[in-house]
Every structure is written in structure tokens, then in C-alpha cells.
Write a structure and sequence with these properties.
Largest sheet: 2 strands, antiparallel
Radius of gyration: 25 Å
Distance between the termini: 55 Å
Length: 157
């Protein structure tokens, strides 16, 4: 493929990539950075592009991979090692100062609502909430798997 033609194709697809970048980042500044990195990587790897390949899909894949790699780097930077003997890993951003009163009120409201649901829906829902798999619930009550799934779905509603 002619390099100038390839460069033109990549630049023309920039506007198609922008909504996807916004969806991934949720931030205009990070979107611009992600678009720039994608364009740079695509142009620097022009020799790897095959002529009969869908260029949009190729660019979307490059963008997605850059985003995933950046996300993983950020997560690693936010994780710190504890120097105590037990050597737990702590996530620096997850400091929870929970509000027990609010949580209690929410749970009371949920319990009231859940008590209004018929037993045939409430029981599978509670079992699923406690960690039982759909198949286990179906076997215990001798009902089809689809029925279990629909009852749990309806209980959530």
C-alpha cells in the first residue's frame, strides 16, 4: 500500500474513532490523548496493515488495546504493597468510610419490598443472592433452569 494513501485513510477515520474513544474514557482530554496515541501507533505500524483488511476494525482494535494497557498501568500504580509480615496488597483508592445507618435503612426497605414478593419468586432470588447457581436451584426445586432464571429476573423487577 502507498504510504501517503494509508496516512490519508488513517486520518480520515479519526472522526469515526472519536465516539468510541469517548465511550471508553468518558473524558474529553483523555479522549484526545487516546485518539493521538491510536493515530501514532497506526501510522508507525503501517507495514503491519494488510491491504484487504478493514481499516476501521484495525484502528478500533489498536484503540481498544491501548486503552486496556493504559487502564492496567493505572491499576498497578494505584496498588501498593504492605511491608508487614503478612504482605497484603492494598488498593489505595478504596478507602471505605461506610455509613452503617444508611445501609441499615436501605436493607430494611429492601426487606419490606422483598416480603411483598410471592414465595415462588422470592425463594430462588434469595438462594441466588446467597451464592447458589441457577442449576443448583433448579435441581433443588425440580423445576426447569429457564423457570429459575425468569423467577429471579421477575423478583428483581
Amino acid at each position: 500500500m502507498v504510504p501517503n494513501n494509508f496516512q490519508q485513510m488513517v486520518v480520515e477515520h479519526r472522526e469515526f474513532l472519536k465516539p468510541y474513544a469517548i465511550n471508553l474514557t468518558g473524558n474529553i482530554e483523555e479522549t484526545d490523548d487516546l485518539l493521538q496515541e491510536t493515530m501514532l501507533k497506526a501510522l508507525s505500524n503501517a507495514d503491519k496493515f494488510k491491504e484487504d483488511t478493514n481499516i476501521k476494525a484495525w484502528l478500533y482494535t489498536i484503540m481498544k488495546n491501548i486503552f486496556i494497557n493504559d487502564y492496567r498501568k493505572k491499576v498497578k500504580q494505584q496498588t501498593m504493597a504492605d511491608s508487614t509480615d503478612s504482605q497484603f496488597f492494598l488498593n489505595a483508592n478504596q478507602v471505605d468510610q461506610g455509613d452503617d445507618a444508611h445501609g441499615t435503612l436501605v436493607m430494611q426497605d429492601l426487606s419490606k419490598i422483598l416480603n411483598t414478593v410471592d414465595d415462588e419468586y422470592r425463594t430462588p432470588f434469595l438462594m441466588h443472592h446467597e451464592g447458589f447457581k441457577y442449576q443448583e436451584i433448579a435441581e433443588k426445586y425440580n423445576i426447569p433452569l429457564g423457570t429459575v432464571k425468569s423467577r429471579i429476573f421477575l423478583a428483581r423487577q
